[in-house]
Amino acid sequence: MSNEKTVPVATYLFTRLHQLGIRSIHGVPGDFNLVALDYIPKAGLNWVGNCNELNAAYAADGYARIKGISAIVTTFGVGELSALAGIGGAYSEHVPVIHIVGYPSTTAQKSGALLHHTLGNGDFTVFTQMSKHISETVALLNDVHTAGKEIDRALKTCYQSSRPVYITLPTDVVEKEIPAESLNTPLDLAFDPNDPEVEADVIDTIIQELYAAKKAVILVDACAMRHRALDEVHELVNKSLLPAFVTPMSKGAIDETNPRFGGVYVGSLTRPDIKDAVESSDLIISVGALKSDFNSGGFTYHTSAKHTVELHSSQVKIGYAVYPNMKMKLVLRKLIDTLDFKKLQHGSETSKSEPPLISNDKEADAEKSDSEVITHAWLWPRVGQWLKANDVVIAETGTSGFGILDARFPTGVTAISQVLWGSIGYAVGATQGAALAAHELDPSRRVILFEGDGSLQLTAQEIATMIRHKLKPIIFILNNEGYTIERLIHGEDAVYNDIASWKHTQLLETFGAKEGEYKNFVVKTRSELDTLFDNNQEFSSAPYIQVVELFIPKMDAPKRLQVTAQQTAQRNAHS
After folding, report:
1. Which of 98 and 351 is assigned the larger pLDDT?
2. Residue 488: which residues within 8 A CB-CB, separation 6 or more?
3. How far is the C-alpha of 206 from the C-alpha of 210, rounded, in Å?
4. Weakest mean pLDDT among 246-255, 353-362, 546-555
5. pLDDT digits (tens, 9 = 90+) for 227-262
6. What is d(CA 94, CA 100) in angstroms, rounded to the nearest whole number?
7. 31, 279, 354, 481: which one is catalytic?
8. What is the pTM of this model?
9. What mean pLDDT do residues 124-151 have?
10. Which of 289-303, 355-369, 422-436 has the lowest mean pLDDT?
11. Which residue in 165, 290, 363, 453 has its CB near the most CB atoms, within 10 A?
12. How many other C-beta atoms are found inside a 10 Å radius of the C-beta of residue 574?
C-alpha cells in the first residue's frame, strides 16, 4: 500500500514484484542498472547477486518453479545476452520469469550515441528484438506517462501466460515520479471467463465421453503444473478414482503415494505394465500435454487421438475437434462441479481399472546383486527409499534427469528438471533459486541436487551464491568421467566428451564455506551409500550445505536414456 501520491518508477516496479509474492531478485549489477538496484531493498526485496547472468537466469527459473513467478535484473547488451539461454529455457518450458534490463538513457537512445555495450552502430533496439522471440511481451519504459500501465500489463501477461516477459528500465526513467495510486490495488490476475456457450458444449461432450468409457485414465503433463491447474487435477483424480499417470516433465505432479497413481508414461520407453494401462484405455483425459521428443519416448505414444481429450492452457481438443480460447483450469473446475462421479464405469470389479504398483522396494529388489558397483538401475530406487515428504529434487539434464523417473516419490515432493530445453548446467543455477524460494516458504524442506560431473563444470560457481546466502542443499555429484549422455549419442571415446578431473570435495571450501558449516562425502560402493542413507542422521537432516561425490561407471546409464540416445542419433542422421 502506498500513502504517497507519486513514487519513482523503480519503486512502482519493485513494489509490484513484492505484491506478486517475489521476495528475492536474481541478477548481476552493471552500470545501466545500478541506480535501479538501490530501490530493491526499499520495496522489501532482497538482492541475490549471481556469479553471471546465465546462472542468474537458471536461478530465476528454479525460484519461479517453487514460488510461481520470479524476476531477474541484467544490464543492457552484454548482461542481457548472457542471460538469454536461461530465459529461452524458461520460455520453452512455460516458466514465468520477469526479465528487467537496465537500459541506456532515453536521450542516448534518441541520439544513437556510440555507448559501451552497444554494437557501435547506434541501434539500441537490436537486443530487444532478440528477446522478443523468447518473451511473451516486451514493455519499453521510455515514456514515463505510460510506465505504470506498461509495468502492470507486462506483469499480468507473465503470470497468466506462464512465460518470460522483458521490461526495459532506462537510466533516466528509474527515478522519475509516477502516480502511486494503482499500487493500492493488487493486480487482477484472474483469467477472463471462457465463452459460456462453447464451454458448456465442451463440458457436456467430455462428460458424455467419460460416462461411456470403461477404462478411462488421466495423463498429467508439464503445462498442468506451469499453468496452475494441479489443485483441479488432484480433485478430479480423488473424486473420479481414475488411474492417473505423469510424464517425465510432470514428475511429482501427482502424489505418488496416492493409490490411484499409476507411474510415468514415456511412450515405448515405459515399463510394460504402465504402458499397457495407458495404451489399453478407452479414453485418456490429457491435461497440459507437451509432447517433446524426450518427454514422449521419442514420439512413440501409442494412443488414439479419437479417444483422447486434450486440455491445454488456451484450447481444448476432443477427438479431432478443436475448441480455441478454452482455458483448461476453468474447464477442469466446471467439469468437476458438473460430473456425476457415480456414473463413471470403473471399479474394483475390473482389474484393469487398478493402476500398476509403483514401489521403490520392488524396483530395488529387482536390482539386488553381490556387486558393490553403483549402477543407475540400482541407484534411483534406492534414492526413492531415502527421500522424505516435501523434498525439492533437482535433476540435471542427462543421466540424472532420466534416472530420477525410477524413484517413487514420497508425498509432497517437488521435482525440477529441464526435459524440453535440456541445457546442461541448468540444474546448479536452478538449485540456488529453488533453495532460496523453498527457504522463504518453508525452511524445513530439504533441497537435493543430482548433478553430473560434466554439467557441473558449466555453472559450478553458483555454489558460491548458495554458500553466501546460507542455503543448505545436498549436492550429489555423479562422477562418470565426462559427458555420458553425449557419449551414448555419438563419440563414446571421443576427446570432446572428456572433461578435466576436478577435486569435487574441495569445491565448498574453495567457494567460501566456513569450517563447521559444510561437509563432503565420497561414495564408491553400494554399502557406502546405504550407510550414508541409513546411519548418518546428521547428513539426512541437511543442517548445512553438503557434497556427495558418487562414482558410477563411465558408460552406465538408465535404460530409458540408452534408448533415447539411440533414437536421437538416428534422428540426427536423417537428411
Report:
1. 98
2. 555, 557, 561, 562, 565, 566
3. 6
4. 353-362
5. 999 999 999 999 999 999 999 999 999 999 999 999
6. 18
7. 31
8. 0.96
9. 98
10. 355-369
11. 165
12. 5
**pLDDT band at 363, cuts 50/70/90?**
low
53 a catalytic residue? yes
Given 30, 422, 425, 452, the catalytic residue: 422
Buried b (16+ CB within 10 A) or exposed e, 486-511: bbbbeeeeeeebeeeeeebeebbeeb
263 is catalytic: no
What is the rounded distance in angstroms from the CA atom of residue 549 to the CA atom of residue 504? 7
Catalytic residue among 18, 38, 68, 117: 117
3-class secondary-structure state, position 166: strand
Active site residue 453: yes
Catalytic residue among 50, 360, 480, 520: 480
Distance between CA atoms of residues 401 and 469, nearest Å: 26
The C-alpha cell that represents 74 in the structure block: 541484467
- pLDDT, one tens digit per residue, over 291-311 is 999 999 999 999 999 999 999
CA distance 321 to 307: 11
Instruction: Identify the active-site residue in 293, 354, 486, 498.
Output: 486
Nearest one of 240, 407, 247 to 332, comparing CA atoms: 240
Residues 127/84, Cβ–Cβ less than 8 Å: no
Percent above pLDDT 90 for the chain: 90
The C-alpha atoms of residue 308 and residue 330 are separated, in whole angstroms, by 19
Q: Say whether 422 is catalytic.
A: yes
Catalytic one of 21, 116, 325, 361: 116
> Across the beta sheet with 474-479, what order do the strands follow?
414-416, 392-395, 447-452, 474-479, 545-551, 518-523
- If we measure between CA atoms, which residue out of 85, 86, 143 comes closest to residue 109? 143
- Indicate if 486 belongs to the active site: yes
Among 33, 50, 53, 406, the one annotated catalytic? 53
pLDDT band at 317 (very low <50, low <70, confident <90, very high): very high
Pick left, alpha or beta for residue 240 (phi over 0 → left; psi -120 to 50 → alpha; otherwise beta).
alpha
